[in-house]
Amino acid sequence: MANRLADALSPYLRQHADNPVHWREWGEEALAEARERDVPILLSVGYAACHWCHVMAHESFEDDATAAVMNENFVCIKVDREERPDIDAIYMNATVAMAGHGGWPMTCFLTPEGAPFYCGTYYPNTPRGGMPSFVQLLEAIAETWRTRRDEVAQAAAGVVTELQRSSGGLPAGGGSVDAALLDAAADTIARDEDRDHGGFGGAPKFPPSNLLEGLLRGYERTRSADTLGLVERTAWAMARGGIYDQLGGGFARYSVDAGWVVPHFEKMLYDNALLLRMYAHLARVTGAELPRRVAEETAEFLLRDLLAEEGGFTSALDADTGGVEGLTYVWTPEQLEEILGTDDGRWAATVFAVTEEGTFEHGASVLQLPGDAEDSARLADVRARLFAARTERPQPGRDGKVVTAWNAFAITALAEAGAALGEPAWIDAATDCAQVLLDRHLVGGRLRRASLGGVVGAPAGVLEDYGALVTALLAVHQATGEVSWVAHARALADVALEQFADPERPGSWFDTAHDAESLVARPRDPIDGATPSGASLITEALLGLSALVHDDSRYADAAAMSLSASAILLDRVPRAAGHWLTVAEAAVRGPVQVGVVGGGELLDAARRFAPGGALVVGGESDSSPLLVGRPRVEGAPTAYVCRGFVCDRPVTTVEELREALSVV
Fold first, then answer.
1. Confidence of residue 550 (pLDDT cuts 50, 70, 90)
2. Of 295, 344, 462, 604, which one has the greatest count of Cβ atoms within 10 A?
3. pLDDT for 458-478, tens place per residue?
4. CA angle 515, 520, 524 (to 5 degrees)
């Protein structure tokens, strides 16, 4: 039977449509085929921008002999981890338990019922480094299935039992989330800082966007110079390193070294959206030029390189260009001189730390910006010329899939940054994207996970989609004053409360809906990783709604129970609870609500000086829930600073408002 991926909506699956492997998409039809043939399932999970996924595809999945072994002995299923995060989560947990580590491509062998009995990641096409070749593994698994079926069944049952046990969720009533807990969490996080290079831990090093946003909000509450110093050291190091695209803006997914020098070149929408939010916040708090420039360039990258023609933001740019890592991005001194001339080329090599030895491969260097150039006009000219030349090079492929949660991150970042930094075009882009998601991804009142080319996919939205989009819609409401966004947010929050909350464990959430497809385990993971957990995102969303809507206590109650459950994470593993820290800081401070009747410079000031997580709404009296019963004072624009709809005295000048916000 032929490969069935040509009609898939996932670009990653389509990349494998010409493989000689008889790939199937995940679904009952594929599982039924495995039962009928009495063969195990070979599940391969990856994503379009994944370098090692491409390597294994070229080595094994495009090889006729390897494909023949796969087709004869297995039902082969391909899954895009970004389209099916539920499947990815279940089998990644199994992979980590069995192999001691995870990663992509993920290679799992399952019973026809979907129970995993052997899992790993990348396997080479020839034996090396103590690893068997992929074909050797396939033959061993097939032989085990034929001759030792009882052992396979026993192993699979044990794994499933452990998967179900580990998806129990956080215990209810974990503790009190207060200033003392948050201060202790910040101290614990600070002890893990890499003071030499910024960030945390060694290589590989990932941008800690969630942690930095949470710490930045903590600084606004405590005014701790140590906390701000940690945020600035990491933010500056990333912005000056090779992980940041010094010509085109935007961040790569991670650095392969501890010093942020050499990136893994894929650029993900979620990283750049979350980092845009943090850098814009840092620019607003400090007034420094570097974070503002990075925010501007990252927003430009999103709008230039990731915006789809049909609306919405696409998922990623590949790590490879034509199968070669870094081909688009790296430079030699000779190439700089060829483009810029001798004088400017040598000057650029010094400014961007491009050396004869190179910082990457084959004598090429990733551009860095270790310090500010004295001649800023010359730097701007050189950057523009190099970027123009780079556009003539082969470009990395783009995963055109529009993912609900990741687009919601972008909406929130663009709306907040646009309002705070005075960039109305960003607010317009956020508004347009929000409307696209509501028009396309909301089907019958329920969210879908993704679309491609304007066509929505079948996979249902997961908890992170609902939580992220509710917060995004509230961000657009705050940036535009249009109250209809609140109604849309409430409708989605109501679905989340009905479909994802654990009725037996208040404050705990499932990542899939109650009426979703039944899998071997129902995933729920409250830990924040490269993206916030669904649980912390829905808690942020409910907290925001509770600060804007006063006629339904369910939102505040659910947010409070979730935060209480998260206390154990903030206490024991705060580095794995960055977004929980972000949400908890907003909760401990109020959350703060700022209603500005009349707008103008008073509204601009509220957006500049309100702490992160504050709800800022402008408009005329009674035009939104936060402004009900709050009139102008003596006809002048008036600001109300509130907590829980209980407000301080109204103020009418920027100076008074800044003073009122300085003590919240």
1. confident
2. 295
3. 999 999 999 999 999 999 999
4. 65
pLDDT at 523 (0 to 100): 94
Q: Tell me the pTM.
A: 0.96
The β-bridge partners of 595 are: 617, 640
- CB burial string 308-338: b at 16+ within 10 A, e below: beebbbbbbbbbbbeeebbbbbbbbbebbbe
What is the structure's pLDDT at 380?
A: 96
pLDDT bracket for residue 334 (50, 70, 90): very high
Q: What's phi and psi for 500, nearest 5 deg?
A: -115, -20
List domains and CATH numbers for the chain. 11-166 (3.40.30.10), 179-319+399-588 (1.50.10.10), 329-393 (no CATH), 592-662 (no CATH)
Name the token pair of 504.
């037996």
Q: What pLDDT is attached to residue 169?
A: 80
Which are the contacts of 531, defined by CB distance < 8 A and separation ≥ 6?
Answer: 270, 274, 405, 406, 409, 464
Three-point CA angle 555, 559, 563, nearest 5°: 175
Q: Three-state SS string across 94-119, please?
A: HHHHHHCCCCCCEEEEECCCCCEEEE
Q: How many CA atoms lie within 13 A of 263 on its CB side?
A: 30
Task: Say if CB 409 and CB 582 are below 8 A apart.
Answer: no
Per-residue pLDDT band for 264 (boundaries 50, 70, 90) equals very high
Q: What is the pLDDT of residue 173?
A: 65
Q: What share of the chain is helix, strand, coil (3-state, %, to 5)?
A: 50, 15, 35
Rounded to 10 degrees, what is the CA torsion of 24, 29, 35, 37?
-60
The residues, any chain, with a CB within 8 Å of residue 126's CB and separated by 6 or more, are 133
Whole-number CA gyration radius for the chain: 25
What is the rounded end-to-end Cα distance, in angstroms, of the chain?
A: 66
DSSP state at residue 639: E
According to DSSP, residue 313 is labeled: B
**Angle, vertex CA 357, rays to CA 355 and CA 362, nearest 5:** 115
Positions of E strands within 112-169: 116-120
pLDDT band at 2 (very low <50, low <70, confident <90, very high): low
